[in-house]
Write a structure and sequence with these properties.
The chain has 350 residues and is of the alpha/beta class. The chain is built from twelve helices and twelve strands. The structure holds nicotinamide-adenine-dinucleotide (NAD) and thymidine-5'-diphosphate. Thymidine-5'-diphosphate binds next to helix 6 and strand 8.
Length: 350
């Protein structure tokens, strides 16, 4: 019996983790704690919201009293911490939001967990979800391993790096049982359309320009979000205490090649002429401090815990496109109102 607190469960990856844990482990109680910022959306969890082992708490990580209340009320036994500000471009315009949520929020959560678990710290797990962006940028060669030194380049990755350091420090200093995973770029259903793949799917649907930053030759390693969720499941249950695991897709793409593939697949799905959507590609001003290449070596996770991605990129991308085409209402609901202002402010100056 476990009462697991999953933070950020109304966001993109968190909603997949909540769904997996709620359905796979009926004996666990899953408490989803989320402040419901612009990125949090309870529509992401409509299919499981009435499950008997699911609870939702609208709480901000900066509210220590409310966090304490959640731990007491639900007798939380373990934490899977995903809540964060997650978009690099927003971190460039508003770095302090990232300091508050990603650093202060994580330390608040560590403190409340430490106090609540008091003399039984070895019976409880604090699992912190992080990103490969903490390692900085690669050149044309090489991969990030678990021993690559941290070298964050954006306010987002700097704030995630700081939170990772605090988690590790709490394990050393207070003997909390922790584990950290650093994952590459995710894609899939319920992804907020400010990130590359869902933004471009939405723009292709509406025949809007596809703003490719710089020369388009930046490289990312893409992982289907449901495979990230299964990796989190495996690490939560079988990972070494106070260890760290890289999670990746073994799937590197230059942005421009990925965008062209997306255009081709969307043209086929939408019955458009060959090459029609590619004409929407527009090169725009580069992102400041743009990391050239991320590539994860996830061999340790594969060798130690037997995890490997279950779908190919072609399968994952096809499922993702179908999901967006079949969920026009979800997309419409989040791309009206505040989203339009965000889009105008981010993209008019580029
Ligand atoms: P997201 O932006 O979609 O969701 C973040 C969630 O956190 C939202 O539901 C939001 O409401 C909530 N939240 C934000 N601030 C909060 C606060 N102060 N208190 C409580 N809740 C708050 O993010 P995501 O893409 O699902 O990422 C989840 C986690 O995974 C993050 O920690 C991120 O750093 C990490 N990660 C993401 C990726 C990726 O490709 N998206 C890759 C590797 C790691
Ligand atoms: P993004 O999805 O924001 O993820 P991250 O920056 O965390 O890797 O961006 C993925 C890549 O796509 C990155 O190299 C930046 C680029 N990109 C564009 O070229 N245009 C865009 O409009 C966006 C949002 C991203």
């Amino acid at each position: 019996m476990k009462n697991i607190l999953i933070t950020g469960g109304a966001g993109f990856i968190g909603s997949h983790v909540v769904r997996l844990f709620v359905t796979k482990y009926p004996n666990y109680t899953i408490v989803n704690l989320d402040a419901l910022t612009y990125a949090g959306n309870l529509e992401n969890l409509k299919d499981i919201e009435n499950s008997p082992n699911y609870r939702f708490e609208k709480v901000n990580l900066l509210d220590v009293a409310a966090l304490t209340q959640v731990f007491q009320q639900h007798q939380i036994t373990d934490v899977v911490h995903l809540a964060a500000e997650s978009h690099v471009d927003r971190s460039i315009t508003s770095p302090l939001d990232f300091v508050y949520t990603n650093i202060v929020g994580t330390v608040n959560l560590l403190n409340v967990a430490k106090t609540h678990w008091a003399n039984e710290l070895d019976k409880h797990l604090f699992y912190h979800i992080s990103t490969d962006e903490v390692y900085g940028a690669l050149g044309d060669e090489g991969f990030f391993t678990e021993t690559t030194p941290y070298h964050p380049n954006s306010p987002y990755s700097a704030s995630k790096a700081a939170s990772d350091h605090f988690v590790r420090a709490y394990a050393e200093t207070y003997h909390m049982h922790t584990v950290i995973s650093n994952c590459s770029n995710n894609y899939g259903p319920y992804h907020f359309p400010e990130k590359l793949i869902p933004l471009f799917i939405n723009n292709i649907i509406h025949k809007k320009p596809l703003p490719v930053y710089g020369d388009g030759k930046y490289t990312r390693d893409w992982l289907f979000v449901k495979d990230h969720a299964t990796a989190i499941d495996v690490i939560f249950h079988k990972g070494q205490i106070n260890d760290t695991y890289n999670i990746g897709g073994f799937n590197e793409w230059k942005n421009i090649d990925l965008v062209k593939l997306l255009c081709k697949l969307m043209d086929e799905k939408l019955g458009r002429a060959v090459g029609e959507s590619e004409q929407l590609i527009t090169y725009v001003k580069d992102r400041p401090g743009h990391d050239r290449r991320y590539a994860i070596d996830a061999t340790k996770l594969n060798k130690e815990l037997g995890w490997y991605p279950s779908v190919t990129f072609e399968q994952g991308l096809a499922e993702t496109i179908d999901w967006y085409l079949n969920n026009g209402e979800w997309l419409h609901n989040i791309t009206s109102g505040a989203y339009e202002k965000y889009y105008a402010s981010m993209y008019t100056n580029r």
